[in-house]
Design goal:
By secondary structure, the chain is an alpha/beta fold.
C-alpha cells in the first residue's frame, strides 16, 4: 500500500470562504475524508450549493464535523474564532489549524485568534498556517511552474508534524517550522507582504497587456 493509504485522515473544515472551499476540494482529491461545516445559515446554504455536485465531501454541523475529525481547519474571519472555539467542544487531543483570514487593518490578529482558541478549547495542538486572503497562490502549491514553500507557527510538535504531511499531499516544496506561538504575528506580516506582492504583480501584468494592445 502507498503513502496515501497510510496517511488518510478525517479532516473538518469550518467556514464558507474561498480558502475553506479550496481546502475541501484539494484534500478530498488526495484521498482524505473531508467534512465541511458552516457557522450560520447563510454559509450553510452557500456550502451546500457549492458542493452539491460532490456527495463524497460530507456537509454536517460544526459540532458533528469536529467530533468526526482528527484535524480541524478553521478558515473563517478572525471575528468568528471565539464562536467556533466554543462550539467545537472537546478537541484537546485533536490538531487544530488556525487558518483564519488575515485582515490588513488588524495587525496581530493571528496570535489573538490562536490564543483564544487555546484558552477556550483547552487544546495544546493549535497552530497557525495557511493564513491568507485574496491571494490566488496562497493555497496553490505552485508558482510559475515551481513548487512553493509554506510556513507554520505554534508550540505543538504534534500539529506541526501532521501539517507537514498535509503540505506534502498538497504539493508544497516544504513546510518550514517558523517557531512558537510568539512568532505568529511575524507570520501574519509575511502573509501581508505576499498579498501586497500579488496585487502589484497583477497590476503590472494588466499594464503590460494594455501596452501590448
Amino acid at each position: 500500500m502507498g503513502y496515501k493509504v497510510f496517511a488518510c485522515m478525517d479532516i473538518a473544515i469550518v467556514g464558507a470562504s474561498r480558502t475553506s472551499i479550496t481546502f475541501a476540494e484539494k484534500l478530498f482529491e488526495v484521498g482524505h475524508h473531508v467534512f465541511v461545516s458552516a457557522i450560520d445559515l447563510e454559509e450553510e446554504k452557500e456550502i451546500k450549493n457549492y458542493f452539491s455536485y460532490n456527495d463524497s465531501i460530507t456537509f454536517c454541523t460544526l459540532e458533528d464535523a469536529a467530533l468526526a475529525a482528527d484535524i480541524i481547519i478553521i478558515a473563517t474571519n478572525p471575528a468568528h474564532m471565539r464562536e467556533v472555539a466554543y462550539r467545537i467542544d472537546d478537541v484537546r487531543d485533536k490538531v487544530v489549524i488556525d487558518a483564519t483570514e488575515i485582515l490588513a487593518s488588524n495587525s496581530g490578529s493571528g496570535v489573538n485568534t490562536l490564543n483564544a482558541a487555546r484558552a477556550i478549547t483547552g487544546s495544546q495542538h493549535i497552530v497557525k498556517c495557511f493564513n491568507c486572503k485574496e491571494y490566488d497562490n496562497a493555497l496553490h502549491a505552485f508558482y510559475k511552474d515551481h513548487s512553493i514553500d509554506i510556513f507554520i507557527a505554534g508550540d505543538s510538535k504534534k500539529a506541526k508534524a501532521t501539517i507537514q504531511l498535509l503540505a506534502r499531499d498538497l504539493g508544497y516544496a516544504d513546510c518550514y517550522d517558523f517557531g512558537g506561538n510568539e512568532t505568529v504575528p511575524v507570520l501574519e506580516d509575511m502573509a501581508r507582504c505576499m498579498m501586497n506582492f500579488a496585487k502589484h504583480e497583477y497590476a503590472a501584468q494588466m499594464d503590460l497587456k494594455l501596452l501590448e494592445k
